[in-house]
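Internal ticket - ligand job 286, 5,10-Methenyltetrahydrofolate:
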Amino acid sequence: MTILDGKALSNKIKDEVKVEVEELIKEKHITPGLAVILVGSDAASATYVASKAKSCKNAGIYSVVHEMPDTITQEELLETIKRMNENPSLDGILVQLPLPKHIDTTTVLEAIDPLKDVDGFHPYNVGRMVSNLDSFLPATPFGVMRMFEEYGIDLVGKNACVIGSSDIVGKPMASLLINAKATVTVCNSRTKDLKAQTLASDIVIIAVGVPHLLKADMIKEGVIVIDVGINRLDTGKLTGDADFEDCKTKSSFITPVPGGVGPMTIAMLLKNTVKAAYLRETRESK
Ligand SMILES: Nc1nc(=O)c2c([nH]1)NC[C@@H]1CN(c3ccc(C(=O)N[C@@H](CCC(=O)O)C(=O)O)cc3)C=[N+]21
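stdout (structure tokens):
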């Protein structure tokens, strides 16, 4: 059994990004810039945003966190995005999710310039991703794919089960696996026999937000378990959607929580920001 060490791998990627940023500065005189919009005062969101800002700073990426109260109107938010779209020194724009209920998330995400869409949530990038064209890839599934690559995990012909069909994780994850020639099943809360699906799978990727949903009796010997869940228990401890101690007894590879997929998400966001900075000249000639 091998633990997929997302923490260590994310540090390696962050070092790569640092070098890429130095090159951009030296050769093109561009310092990559990321704008993060944070609406409201959710504690978890604020923590993630602070962590993103810190990682940017360490990598030499300029970042601004634009905080807005949850009383803001949708129009004010759209106006802010428009200004950021037009600001040439901001290469990436990220609107931290979830947004307050009175704001329509789709409208907001569609307002971001697709060439600055470092989250890869704009329909333009979603469409390109599904069509296997070059695009910004959503950071979490992108990070999972990078983990497979680094640990030499071959996806061709594998049965992969994605549990959870969100726009942010499940759907893009399924797309990337399909493009990698895996055979993909996507399950959701209405799936009739989840255990039948997981037992038939070589790879199980779970992203549902239910602590310890995946147990050893649901997986076959030698399975690869990717746990995207991050749940804070009453004790304050973080735990995943898989019962790690139980599932590891049958897994060939498994990600821990914390220290698995989470840190990869931030590393791939930095990668996407560098990619956006390389597009700066393309944007300006449009
Ligand atoms: N527009 C947008 N883009 C996002 O990418 C986005 C978002 N909204 N909203 C919230 C989710 C969540 N997310 C995480 C990033 C890092 C960790 C991470 O680094 N987790 C650490 C632990 C962190 C801790 O100790 O709390 C770990 O798993 O080891 C987790 C979760 C990005 N998200």
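Auto-summary: The longest strand covers residues 33-39. Residues 98 and 105 are 8 Å apart (CA to CA).
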